[in-house]
Every structure is written in structure tokens, then in C-alpha cells.
Design a protein that fits this description.
Radius of gyration: 21 Å
Number of strands: 0
Shape: rod-shaped
Largest sheet: none
Structural class: mainly alpha
Strand content: under 5%
Distance between the termini: 35 Å
Length: 70
């Protein structure tokens, strides 16, 4: 957004240039949202499989470590 704000004072800017930057920024945000949703869903599944016992076995850590290996 900083890049967009810098264009505010630039009287030589075109609205096409602003739109191009805004569109690119929106695509980046949407990509990050998708990545975060995938992480959210995976962590949620790991939490659901964890019984929360007082044992050292941990399906959450097992799931995360398996994910890192692949």
C-alpha cells in the first residue's frame, strides 16, 4: 500500500498505473490468504486428532514433522 500512497502526490501518474499496482497487491494478498487457510486447516486437523493426554506422544508434532519431511 505504501507504493500506492507514494503515487498520490505524483501528478504524472495514471489511473491505469494505480490500478495495476492495486491489482498486483490484491493478488499477493489473496495468495497469502490461501496459504494461511491451508495452514489453518492442517493445524485444525492435527488439533482434532490430539487426545491431549499427559503422555509425550503428540499427534500435532508428528503431523507437523511429517509435513516438513514431504
Amino acid at each position: 500500500c505504501r507504493e500506492l500512497l507514494e503515487l498520490y502526490d505524483n501528478k504524472n501518474r495514471t489511473s491505469a498505473a494505480v490500478k495495476k499496482i492495486a491489482t498486483s497487491r490484491l493478488e499477493e494478498i489473496e495468495r497469502k490468504q490461501k496459504e494461511l487457510q491451508i495452514l489453518h486447516d492442517e493445524l485444525h486437523r492435527f488439533i482434532e486428532t490430539c487426545p491431549g493426554y499427559q503422555m509425550p506422544d503428540c499427534p500435532i508434532l508428528d503431523g507437523i514433522s511429517e509435513k516438513e519431511k514431504s
